[in-house]
Each structure stands twice: as C-alpha cells, then as structure tokens.
C-alpha cells in the first residue's frame, strides 16, 4: 500500500470535518511540518468519528443490574484452606516451569502525584529511596530465586514516558535483572477532542495526544510482538500489575494456582474496601457479567449498602488491578476483533490553542479503554480476596491517604513484622525499616537470611549481600 500524499491526507481530514488541524501549516518550519504530518498519519479518523459520535449520544449510563461477585475469601473454611494449599503448590510449579510472564502497566501519567517523570521512578523506599520500579524488580527477582526460574518482564510505557523509562532502567542497571529479559512496549496515543468532536491541537504543529488507557495493554501486547515472544518462551499466563503500589506481589503462587486450576481466562485480586468512600473500583456483576464498577458509577445508596448477614459493605471487593490473564485469551480477543473494549470518556480541561494560535484552555475529552472490561468476555474467572496490609498501598496522591507517606509507613510496618521474633533485631529501635524482598518476604526467611543490616540516619535497611539472596 503506498503512503497517501500530503494532499490526500489533507483531503481526508477535510472530509472528516477535521481540516482545522492544517490551519497553521503555512506558518510552520519544515521540521514542525514533519512532526505534524507524522502525528496526523497515525490518527485513525474512523475511530475519531466514533469518539465524536459518542460525545453526541447521551452521557447518562443505562441503569444496570448490579450484584456482588463470588470470591475466594480471606476467611477460609477448612475445605477452602485445603484448596488454597493445593493451588499454591500448582502456582509454585507453574512459576518454576517458567510459564508465567510479568506485565507492568506504566504508561499513565503521575499527574495527581505532581511528579514530573515516569511514576515508577518515584522514590518510595523508607530508608534508601528505592524507586517503585526497583521494588517491582526486587519482588520479581525474589520470586525467581525462590522458585528457580528466569523471569521475563514486559513493561508497558506510553510515548509520553517511554524514553525516560528506558533510560531509568538502564541507569539503574536493570535492577540486577538481565537486560535481555526485559521488554518495553508502548501503548497507543489518541487525540483528545473538544465538546464538538474536533481534534484538539496542543500547539500549531502538535495534536493533543493522550494514552489510550490500560485497556490498550492488550492491543499493544499483540501489536508489539510481545505475545509472540511469550509463546516462543513458553509463557502461558501473564501476571498483570500496576506501577503504583510497592506492596504488589506479582508472583503469588496462590493466585496463579487458583486461576490456573479454574481454567480461568482472566482473574482478579481484590481487597475489602477501607470504607464506603474509598475511591477504588469494585468488582461486581453488571447485568450478570463480571466487571469493575468505578467509584463514580456506584450510586450513594449502593456505596453504603450492607450485606445483611455479615454487616460488610455489599460492594466490598475493591479492585487492586492485579490480574492473571491467559496468553491465548488475549490472542483470541486480538484475532477476533473482540479487543474492541468499550470506550470511557474523561472530561478534562486541556491546554490547547485558539484559532489564532494563542494558548487557551479548552473543555475537552480524552478516550480510554480499561483492561478490566475484558472480564466480561471471560467464561471463567477467579476473584481472590487478599490482605490490604500486605499487598495494597498505592501512591496516588501527593499527600493524605494513598500517598508517599502512607506507602513508606506501610513498608516500615511490614519490615517490623518481618523482624518480629528475631533475636538480634528490635523494630522499635529504628525510625524507618526497609527490607528488600530479595532478603525476605516472610519472618521465617528473615530469620534465616537477614544477618546484616545497614543503619542509615536512624533507619535500617536490609539488602541482598554479595553471597546472594534467599536460598531456594
Ligand atoms: C485504578 C482502577 C481502579 C482501582 C485502582 C487501584 C481504573 C479506571 N481504575 O484507578 O478500579 O481500584 O486503580 O489502584 O483503572 N495506565 C497505563 N496507561 C494508561 C492509563 C493508565 O499504563 O493509559 C496505568 C498507570 O500507569 C497505572 C494504572 O494503569 O499503573 C492505573 O491507572 P490510574 O489512572 O492511576 O488508575 P486509578 O484511577 O488509580
């Protein structure tokens, strides 16, 4: 297929009612023209038209029939306990056999945090300032030592942070992982529109582009060739996780095992909500299909509704965005065109330019898909309840709840829990505690491996020593 000429490109945009993107063409430097042309060639005008039509249709979501999901609970019966033991053994075997690949989604912008850089570069270690990326790397590597496998890690970035993310990993020597086991892939960027469906310009020669949401992971895994690499390497299941919680456990044998045993296509971890107002999505059945109901989509009544028998919130299954996904499930979605996940609209004030080219703010719209909408396409899915205190402490806000301060406090608390009962260490002696996951993730491991601690400014840190980390 030959590349259409600039005239043809222009005609296509004119015809689509988007000719204004060429308004300043004659004023642009050649290099700016090239930038704009490159961006315009990447625009899917049919998709833009669909997005425009969405804006014209009513925003009010159709009333749905919502119900809480079944889940594998933290408070287990003896039978469930036995099932959990069996599943964890299966999960450990799958890890050891190299069947699990790790997928981190880190394409979003850390704007709420007020941090100018890839969110994963944010420093969160309570003693060493170890970054979020470094925590994730340490957990993956700890699992690779424990179960004995060579971990493959797929990191999704977006055009906005790809260069910086790669440079950060390189500068940190890939956190001790081998470079050839790391795969970076980028998600798509889409033009934001104004309220009338017109493409917004960020400047005379640039569109205002935004990442297409974490639902874009599935298409990007396919388009980047990552799924093929996984197939070649024998990876059958993906452990999907978000960048923002340093407590996340991407290599959890119980979760992997329950998901595999059920033959599930995609499974999810949840935590009980902190309270009715916690701004997490909840897993639930929407008209009988599993999905995630965002905080803003749950009416006040439903947010507060309680289960009569237990007194717990009825919609209590807080989504921590940790999923197990079968590789062939993504392949089948990608090949059948079913990757067409529903579009979610985010209305934002967007920095743009007016007709004269002067900077202005516009009430605009960004379009995203969400990975959890693929849950509706599963035939079988496991929902596993896990302990918030051990697995979920996201860094979302600059201060207050879910902030760097709360995440650091949680890492110190977990460090103190790991130290408890050790004859040589007393957590109360330190203002901050940081235990690298490669040293220990359980008190037993800490007792057998943590000989040396390094004291830093009233805090203490335990890091893997030269002799190597946790024994298998
Ligand atoms: C998300 C979930 C919410 C869940 C909460 C748990 C959505 C819409 N909601 O909320 O149900 O309870 O996490 O922490 O996701 N990302 C990309 N590309 C994008 C957009 C996001 O890679 O285009 C990544 C981010 O880097 C981040 C993750 O997805 O790792 C979550 O994105 P974010 O926008 O922070 O979601 P939340 O609103 O916190």
UniProtKB/TrEMBL annotation:
InterPro entries: Nucleotide-diphossugar_trans, UDP-sugar_pyrophosphorylase, UDPGP_fam. GO terms for molecular function: uridylyltransferase activity. It is an enzyme of class 2 (transferase). Transmembrane segments: none annotated. The keyword Iron-sulfur does not apply. Its EC number is 2.7.7.-. Keywords: Nucleotidyltransferase, Transferase. It holds the Pfam family UDPGP. Belongs to the UDPGP type 1 family. This is Putative uridylyltransferase. It comes from Saltatorellus ferox.
């Amino acid at each position: 297929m030959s590349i259409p000429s600039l005239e043809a490109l222009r005609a296509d945009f004119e015809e689509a009612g988007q000719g204004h993107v060429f308004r300043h063409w004659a004023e642009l430097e050649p290099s700016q023209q090239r930038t704009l042309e490159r961006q315009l060639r990447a625009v899917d005008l049919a998709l833009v038209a669909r997005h425009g039509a969405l804006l014209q249709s009513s925003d009010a979501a159709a009333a749905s029939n919502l119900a809480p999901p079944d889940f594998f609970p933290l408070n287990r019966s003896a039978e469930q306990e036995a099932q959990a033991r069996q599943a964890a053994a299966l999960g450990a075997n799958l890890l050891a056999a190299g069947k699990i690949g790790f997928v981190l989604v880190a394409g979003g912008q850390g704007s709420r945090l007020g941090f100018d850089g890839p969110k994963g570069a944010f420093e969160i270690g309570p003693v060493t300032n170890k970054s979020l990326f470094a925590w994730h790397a340490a957990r993956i590597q700890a699992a690779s030592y424990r179960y004995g496998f060579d971990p493959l890690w797929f990191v999704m970035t977006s055009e906005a942070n790809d260069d910086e993310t790669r440079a950060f990993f390189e500068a940190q020597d890939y956190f001790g992982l081998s470079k050839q086991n790391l795969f970076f892939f980028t998600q798509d960027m889409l033009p934001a529109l104004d309220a009338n469906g017109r493409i917004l310009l960020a400047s005379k020669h640039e569109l205002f582009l935004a990442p297409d949401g974490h639902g874009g992971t599935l298409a990007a895994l396919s388009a980047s060739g990552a799924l093929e690499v996984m197939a070649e390497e024998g990876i059958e299941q993906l452990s999907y996780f978000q960048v923002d919680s340093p407590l996340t456990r991407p290599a959890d044998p119980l979760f992997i095992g329950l998901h595999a045993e059920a033959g599930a296509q995609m499974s999810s971890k949840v935590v009980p909500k902190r309270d009715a107002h916690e701004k997490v999505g909840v897993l639930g059945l929407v008209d009988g299909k599993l999905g995630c109901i965002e905080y803003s989509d749950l009416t006040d009544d439903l947010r507060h509704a309680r289960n009569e028998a237990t007194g717990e919130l009825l919609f209590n299954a807080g989504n921590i965005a940790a999923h197990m996904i079968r590789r062939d499930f993504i392949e089948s979605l990608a090949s059948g065109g079913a990757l067409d996940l529903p579009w979610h609209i985010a209305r934002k004030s967007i920095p743009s330019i007016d007709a004269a080219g002067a900077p202005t703010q516009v009430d605009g719209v960004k379009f995203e898909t969400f990975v959890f909408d693929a849950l509706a396409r599963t035939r079988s899915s496991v929902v596993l309840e896990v302990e918030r205190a051990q697995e979920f402490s996201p860094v979302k806000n600059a201060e207050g709840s879910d902030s760097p301060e709360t995440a650091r406090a949680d890492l110190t608390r977990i460090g103190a829990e790991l130290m408890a009962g050790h004859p040589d260490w007393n957590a109360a002696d330190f203002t901050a505690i940081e235990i690298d996951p490669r040293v220990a993730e359980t008190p037993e491991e800490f007792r057998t491996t943590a000989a040396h601690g390094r004291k830093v400014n009233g805090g203490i840190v335990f890091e893997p020593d030269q002799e190597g980390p946790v024994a298998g």
